[in-house]
Write a structure and sequence with these properties.
mainly alpha
């Protein structure tokens, strides 16, 4: 079987293969801003918050290598699975 056929077969074993595994929300970003700026964060405008969102998206797009992270997670998964 080719990889895509295997993926399709495995998807059939799950109730919702489109389930989100990890996500960063605006609330997560706001919490990070508040940890950094504390009370000063109350002075931020909607434009400031949108700019922060845009920068987070840009950084994730440039620096996040999901393949590397998935491989690291799968290495750990294999170890735990065989305990």
């Amino acid at each position: 079987m080719v990889p895509e056929e295997i993926v399709t077969t495995l998807c059939g074993k799950l109730p919702d293969p489109s389930e989100v595994v990890y996500v960063v929300t605006m609330r997560d970003l706001l919490a990070a801003i508040v940890r950094r700026l504390r009370e000063d964060s109350l002075r931020l405008t909607v434009e400031d918050l949108h700019l922060a969102r845009d920068e987070v998206q840009a950084v994730f797009g440039h620096y996040l290598d999901e393949h590397e992270l998935l491989n690291l997670a799968l290495d750990q998964w294999e170890i735990v699975r065989h305990l």
